[in-house]
Every structure is written in C-alpha cells, then in structure tokens.
Amino acid sequence: MNAPHPYTSQAGDFDSLARRSTEQLAQLTQQLQRHTQGEVLVSQADRGRYATDASIYQCMPLAVLVPRSEDDVVSALGICRELNVPIVPRGGGTSQCGQTVGAGLVIDFSKYLRRVIDLNVEQRTVTVEPGMVLDHLNAQLKSHGLWYPVDVSTSGQATLGGMAGNNSCGSRSIAYGNMVHNVLGADAWLSDGSLLSLGRFDQSQGAARHLGERVQQLALQLQPDIERHWPKVLRRVAGYNLDIFCNQNVRPYTADGSVNLAHLLVGSEGTLALTRSLTLQLSPLPRAKVLGVVNFPDFHSAMDATQHIVRLGGPHLSAVELVDRTMIDLSLQNPAFAPTIRTALSPHINHGQPAAILLVEFSGESKDPLLPHLRDLVTLMGDLGLPGSVVEMVDDSAQKNLWEVRKAGLNIMMSLRGDGKPVSFIEDCAVPLEHLAEYTDALTEVFARHGTKGTWYAHASVGTLHVRPILDMRRDGAVKMRAIANEASELVRKFKGAYSGEHGDGLCRGEWIRWQFGDKIHDAFGQIKQWMDPIGLYSPSRMIDPPKMDDERLFRFPSTYRVIPIETALDWSAWNVTADPVTETVSAPGTGGDPAQGFAKAVEMCNNNGHCRKFDAGTMCPSYRVTRDEQHLTRGRANTLRLALSGQLGTSALTDPALWETMDLCVSCKGCKRECPTGVDMAKMKIEFTHQYKQHHGYTLKDQLIAHLPRYAGLASQLAPLLNLRNRWSWLARLTERLTGLSAHRALPAWQSTHAFNTPTPGVDIATVLRAERGVVLFVDTFNGYFESDNARAAYRVLEAAGYTVHVAHRPDQHLCCGRTYLASGMVDQARVQVRQLIDYLLPLAQQGIPIVGLEPSCLLTLRDEALQLGLGESAHEVARHALLWEEFLDREHQAGRLETLRSQLTPAQAPFLLHGHCHQKAFDLVSPIQRVLALIPQSSTTLIETSCCGMAGSFGYDAKHQDVSMAMAKLSLLPTIDKHPDAWVVADGTSCRHQIDHGSKRQALHVAQVLARHLD
Ligand SMILES: Cc1cc2nc3c(=O)[nH]c(=O)nc-3n(C[C@H](O)[C@H](O)[C@H](O)COP(=O)(O)OP(=O)(O)OC[C@H]3O[C@@H](n4cnc5c(N)ncnc54)[C@H](O)[C@@H]3O)c2cc1C
Ligand code: SF4
Ligand code: SF4
C-alpha cells in the first residue's frame, strides 16, 4: 500500500495523522455525521477512490465529505480546525499534478454545489457555485448568446472551482486569456472560518482591503525581483499571482488596469481558501468559425511556422493547436476518432501522412468575413514552401468533430498498453514563440538521451506544447523523470519561459516554484499563505514546503506496487504486454508479467482523467449520470478494482463486498468500451469480477434463474399460462420478489406457449444455404425466440421478401445460445460451453462466407466481443467476422445495390419513427444502419433519441434493488422524449429496452424487423 503523505504542516503531521488515524477518523466521522447533512465517506474503498487524480500520485485521505450545502462546508471547516485535520478541496479531480491528492479531509464540491447563483446578461457576468461544470454553465448561457471562454479540454468535467484553483487555460487563450483574466470576484472561507469577499482592490473594504494592502506592499517591495524573475508569457500559472500589483503577463489581468484581489485565489490550488462562489466575466459566443488545418512534412517546420501564423492571425485568430504524428496515428487506430482525423489530412503532404498538423481557427460574427483569413493562411503556407498543405474546414460539424479529437489528445496518448505511460511533469512549459522550434528540438533530444520519447500537441499559439515522455514509474521512471526535468528546466530558463504553463504546480511542480521565482519571491508566497491560512489547514505541503516531485512514497505505482495473482476466467493477455517507448513495439500477448494475467493491466489503463464524468451525447456512464457518485463511475470502478487487485483494500482481492457495491450499478452498457479514450471496458471487467466474486460467495436463486434461462425456457414455455399469472396477481409478484429479488413492480417478459422453437422452423437446411447464391443464416436468440417470436418471424419474412435463401440456425437436440445470460451472471465456464456449441454450429457456414445475422444486439454482438475472450481460438474469430446485426446486414446489402426487390415491396410510412439505440449498438457504432434501413421505407422520417442506457440493461432493471436507479436512467431523456411524440412509432432493437419503454411509457416499441415487415405489401 502507498505510504500516507509524509510531510508535515502546522495542522498536523501526516505521518502521525495516519498513525492516529483510527481515533482521528472516528472523531472526524462522528462530528461530520452529527453536524453536516453531507455524505461522509470513510470506507477504505471510498477513500481510495479519492486518493488519486489524473496525476501519477496517490495519497489516502482520512475521509471524504460530499457537502450538500454551504452550511456543510462551514461546519466541516470548523470540525477540521478543531481536530487539526487538513482540508483538500476537490472538483472533478482532473488535475494532472496531484493538486487534489492529500491526507486529511477531501471535500468534493462537484455533486451538490453546482448552481448558477446570479446571471446578469447585460453586464455579461455570472456568479456560480464552485462545483458547477464548465459545459453545464455554457449550456445555460447559450440561449443568451454568451459563453465562458476558458475552454479547457476537460470542459465536460472541470468545475469552475477547480479551474480557478488551477488557473486553467483553454485552447483559445490567445483570444480570451486564462482563468485569471476572466474572474471578476470570489467569495471564499479562510481557515479561521471567516468569509472573504474578494474583488476590485480599489473597492474593497475590511479584511479584504487589509489583505490587499499587505500583498500590495509585498509586491512593491519585491518589484525589481518580480520584474527580473517573472516569465513574460501569457501562460504562467506557478506560485501565487503576486504580480497583480505589477503585471508581468503579456495580457493585462483586467480590462481597465485595476487590481482584482480575487486573482490571488486563482491558481492557488486550494492552499489559501475554500471558494464559496466565483463571479465570472462572460464573452459573446462567436457566431461563426472557420478552420484551416495546416499539414506539415516535418515537425520542425510546424514549430517554425507557428510564429508566422500567429503574426498573420489578427484579432479573429482564436486558436493554433498542434497535433503530432504519433497522435494522428493513435487517432487513426481509434474507431471513434479515425473517420474524423482522416478529414484533416492533406494528400499533398507526405502522401496524406503529415508529421504534424496545426489547427488554425478564425472566429467572428459571420463566416464570410472570415474566409479571407483562410485564404491568407493558404497564401502564407504557399510562401513558406508548403502549397496544398491547408485543408479548409468551413462546415461547423466537421470542425466540431476535429476539435473533439484534439481535446481528447492526452487520453488518446494514454491508450498505450504496458507499464510505460506518458507522464505529466514538464508537459506544459511555455516558451516564447520565436524559440518554439529550437525548444522542441532540444527537448526531443533530451528524451532520446534518456531512452524515451514524447508526443507533442496542444497550444502552439501561446508556446505551451504538451509533451509527456513515456516512463515506467514502477521501474526507472522516477530517476529519468528527475534527469529530464533538470534538463528541461535549463531549456526553459535559456528561452525565458515558464516552467509551469497550464496545469498547475501540485505535487510535481511545487518544488520548482523556488527555482522559477527565486528565494525572495518564494518567501513572499510563504508570507501570503501565512496571512491567509496561518494554521496551514488548506492543502498543506504544496506550493509552500512541497515534497520532491519524485518521492515515490507518493506514487500511484511505486516500485513496491504488487498485484495479487489471480486465475482469470476471460483472456486478458492482450493487455499483458510491454511496450518499447522509442520504437513503440509491443511484446507478444501474455508477456507483460502481470500476475493477474493481464486483468490488472487492463484495469490500470484508467489514468483517472475523468472523461467518464459526462452528461452529453453518448452513453458513458449511465449509473454516474443518475447518482453522481464517484463510486458509480467508470473511473471509480477502475480505481476500486486496481486497489483491490494490488492488495490495498485488504487481502481478499476481488471478493470483498465493497467491490460488489462498486460494480453493482454498472449496467454493462459497454459505453466505456467505446467512449473511454483509453479503452477501459468495464462491462467485460464486470464479467470477470462477477465470476471471481461469485466463485467465492456463491450464486443466488436470482442468478440461477437468469443465467440458466436459455436452458429451462423450453420447459417453462409449456407452463406459460401458469407462469404468466405472476404478472396478473400482485400478491404472487410480491411473493416472487421475496423469493427471487425480482421486482414486484415490474411485469416480467410473458412466456409464449407457441414460440419460434416449438413451431416448424422455416427456411432451408444447411446444405441448401451453402449452395444458395444469396444465402444467409438467421440466428434466433432466446429472447426473441421464446418471448417475442413475432420478431423472429418478421425478420425471416423480410429477408425472404428481399430474395435471400434463409437458414434458421437450430439444433433439434439443443437450444443454441450465445451465453449472454451466463456471462452476465459471471458463469463464464457455462457461457464457454454455450458459445462453443454455437460456434461449432456456425463455423462451417462462416467458413463458406455465409453471413450470420441476429436480432438481439447484446446476443449477436457477444459473438464479436466476449466470445473472442473465452479462449476458443480462431474458430471464434472466423464466426465473429461473419456475424452481423439484422439491420447491419440489410444496410450492407443496400449499399451494394442488392435490396431493390425489397424496396419495391415497401409501402409508405404511416407515422414518424422515434429510434432508441441499444447500448451495445452504440458501443459498436451500429445505430446508423438502423436509421438507413428505416429510410428504405418510403416517406419515412426517423428521429434518434439522444439517450444513454434505457436503464433495463438485460436483467438489471428487474432486480428490486435496482428499480429506482433503473427508472431514473430511463427518465433522463428516453421516457420524456417518447412522451413528447405520442404519434410516433417507437423503434428499439433491444428486448430489455422495449420492456423498459413499455413499463415507463406504456408504449409498445418495435424491433426494426417488425417495422419493415409491417411495411411489406
Ligand atoms: C485529459 C485532460 C485534459 C486537460 N486539459 C486541460 C486544458 O486544456 N487546460 C487546462 O488548463 N487544464 C487541463 N487539464 C487539467 C484540469 O482538467 C484542469 O485544471 C481543470 O480545470 C481542473 O478542474 P477540476 O474540477 O477537475 O478541478 P480539481 O482537479 O478537482 O481541482 C483543481 C484545484 O482546484 C482546487 N479546488 C477545487 N475546488 C475548490 C474550491 N471550492 N475551493 C478552493 N479550491 C478548490 C483543488 O484543491 C485543486 O487544487 C486537463 C486534464 C486532463 C486529465
Ligand atoms: S475510465 Fe476511462 S474515461 Fe474514465 S477516468 Fe478512467 S480512463 Fe478516463
Ligand atoms: S459499462 Fe456502462 S455502466 Fe458500466 S462502467 Fe461502463 S459506461 Fe458505466
């Protein structure tokens, strides 16, 4: 386990704090529970989830408070003061330098304290609580034509309190400045409990005025030192903003030259005060943007050209952002990003394989006046010897997609497998533009000397390029980190840059503050800390008395990090690899030395960037969307698994009940599989976990009922009238709930006496389909076959009408099943048996190239996903290559011009369609085929519902314990949208989605096959 934070503060020695922790924790917990309404989290797992942020560090807090109100914060402050427990404030926890990692009480502002307090559209100001997320604020401002323009890449996760804490900077800082340039005021609690209102110095009174005068005096005394040592660049975020009284930034901190005392808090990283509210300067939302993507044949020329592009830019230039070759390649390997990045590549440079691209954006009131700027850019690049290098993007959605890829930069890089990862410690040094090319060349050489390399991207316009050398922190990473930092700092000094230019100081750059500013200014920072937090209660041992950046006692992966050996049920060997940082070659699967056979390494892919804390389009992560709990977040789950696998939650590894709680609300939607930039696939991890857990704790009756459903369904269907009484007699439903845990408030799928498996199988036999010109195999799953056999018939009918020779997969002696119910229950061995039988049946057909189509997304896609990790060899891959969803197959055929017969038979639509995509369809990017197939129906119009998971998710929503969460997921957007469209036909391919819709809106949703069949002549 990691050591507790080893540093001392006046508020308490963390070592002794940890030794006293049982007593301390009991007192703290008791008092917080008694005097606050907030959530008090004290379990080892809860604390572990708050022990990390997006940095390389880890430090167990004593406890976590999630305050529900300001009063809770004030009470907690009093309690901590009394007990001498340090406070570490936290927003989204996306800091990269360990700012939110610390012993003491972590206060998470992000869950409840996230309101807009006051919006003044005329004055263009807004006052917000600190836990408000930037994107959520901007969504509220949009209708007023306003936005808050500090557009950090983590805009969907970053809270305004955290952004102010770090003095964050966005991609468009060249036009709008950093956080410090856009904060007008702050109310904050000092550690003595007093509330300070910080704003314009000349209008300040009382304690704020007094503080301002002291800081002013200090600044005036030190003016010559400030002028000598302060980097003269836009991007300097180290230390406290002592220069508000003699501004050294290339952009004035205020429009009118006044001094604003709130700027003292900006960038103070929670070390001076707890922010209660922030007043922000808003900007008009640019109505139009155009983008020129400049492709470069080599990296140096991109760096050299930046200064010329910035000079050309003028007032409409809003961004110049770099993406280098490695990142282009990684994006091309990512299914979500590949199509977008291709749109940015010019065929005229290195045959479409540029060494780097610069995204050059111009913004203004309308597009037309911006177009000449694009033309000037094209001319400039021609003059610089690069004709044909600019891809012009005027279309808004194309630009938006490309910005998403750029914003995912760090995450894309972190998708490297193996223990070597890009490490943040010199990732945001800022140098003047005229030195950018020389600086990047020199630093690249430094990396090479230390046997590593870095990927360059981000804010070229302001000389802040992100670069992270790939280091293995469990082995020689710390030594290399120190050596590289030393050499990088020399370069920064040579070019008169800022060592800390964007992400803050935290644990990794605190020690460089003295280096950057000299002793006197550093001591002045200590003085400011002393004035504002004399008892050292707030995030001690950071900007003042910081630890060494390479103190491995603070690492998430110290050299002592060990993984508990486990025998995995699924094959995780693809993650069990090592990668060479220079050549990027990856060793063979299974050779990475993971005692958990690759499972631990898969879990460790989560770098804590927090991208899963999102509410926008996409699926990830539905359980967090309704609970807003760190525990019920992909990141929270990955952290808990990591802690368990490395013995930090005790010796019981994956069998601890705390793990069950964490994994319980994961609906296995696979949203993270697609949307987590580092590819954390929690649905698959849940199968492995459930297997491990249930092996130890045993299976419940409910588990057995769900898992074995495909086996007993034939028998049960014979008792259909009897079993269906459960849905009619509420006392029986209640009794069933008591016996099985299946919610009495839900109707269970109704059994059919006559179903697809006890009526004559339509279609041809195997020999015939193998000979057929247009043969296809229809795989009827348990759910559509036993409960909604009309869907299977409809699918068959449409295929036949389209001219296909259909073979319906069946074995008289055995029900063919994909094993999904066993996988969901963690019975991996039984699932393997089922899948093997199915694959044995399908293999000869697949080998002859016959498409295998299925109706239920979660069943059919099992063949393309989990089936490949069951150790079934090449035959599983062969079948997977031919397995298609029914509509995916039709869409493919349509693209090939082979659906004319079907089209000619389709009658016009009778109503608009409202489409809900199943989560697994979304995870495999398979929603658009449904839209295209529906479009075959004459006069049809389809609206896609922007949904996350419907909340039913297989058997999840039937569980009485999940009923509320399940309905909350459905009510996020699915049910309200359906209610708004009473005349539409609701289309949903997932069995459980249809049941949830039926339950929540009393509307019958249809499988797309049914929709087409109902439109056949
Ligand atoms: C993938 C990725 C991309 C990023 N891109 C950018 C980028 O483009 N630009 C950029 O500037 N940064 C970037 N960051 C860093 C980080 O996202 C930003 O600094 C962000 O603003 C932090 O917001 P947060 O809510 O996560 O804050 P946290 O990380 O939770 O906290 C940040 C600091 O604020 C303090 N704090 C939080 N709440 C309070 C409060 N109420 N009172 C006092 N102090 C408080 C914390 O103690 C901490 O010191 C990136 C990080 C990642 C992982
Ligand atoms: S699970 Fe993925 S998206 Fe979430 S924090 Fe981890 S790496 Fe980021
Ligand atoms: S599978 Fe879905 S619910 Fe589970 S962690 Fe991933 S996004 Fe969240």
Task: Explain how this protein is built.
The protein has 1017 residues and is of the alpha/beta class. Helix content is 40%, strand content 12%. α10 runs antiparallel to α16 (436-449). It is globular and about 95 Å long. The termini are far apart. Residues 53-54, 88-96, 99-100, 109, 130, 152-154, 157-159, 161-163, 165-166, 168-170, 269-270, 274-275, 410-411, 502-503, 539, 609 line the site of flavin-adenine dinucleotide.
Show the helix and strand layout.
Blueprint: E1 8-9, E2 12-13, H1 14-19, H2 21-35, E3 39-41, H3 44-49, E4 63-66, H4 70-83, E5 87-90, E6 105-108, E7 116-120, E8 125-128, H5 134-141, E9 146-147, H6 160-166, H7 173-176, E10 183-189, E11 195-198, H8 206-221, H9 223-229, E12 274-281, E13 283-284, E14 288-296, H10 299-313, E15 317-324, H11 325-333, H12 338-342, E16 356-364, H13 371-383, E17 390-393, H14 396-407, H15 409-413, E18 421-422, H16 436-449, E19 454-459, E20 464-471, H17 477-494, H18 506-509, H19 512-517, H20 519-532, H21 599-603, H22 622-627, H23 634-645, H24 657-664, H25 671-675, H26 682-697, H27 701-707, H28 709-718, H29 720-723, H30 730-740, H31 766-771, E21 775-779, H32 782-786, H33 789-801, E22 805-808, H34 820-824, H35 828-847, E23 852-854, H36 857-860, H37 874-882, E24 883-885, H38 886-895, H39 900-905, E25 913-916, H40 919-923, H41 928-934, E26 942-944, H42 963-972, H43 974-980, E27 985-988, H44 991-1001, H45 1008-1014
The structure holds flavin-adenine dinucleotide and iron/sulfur cluster (SF4) (2 copies).
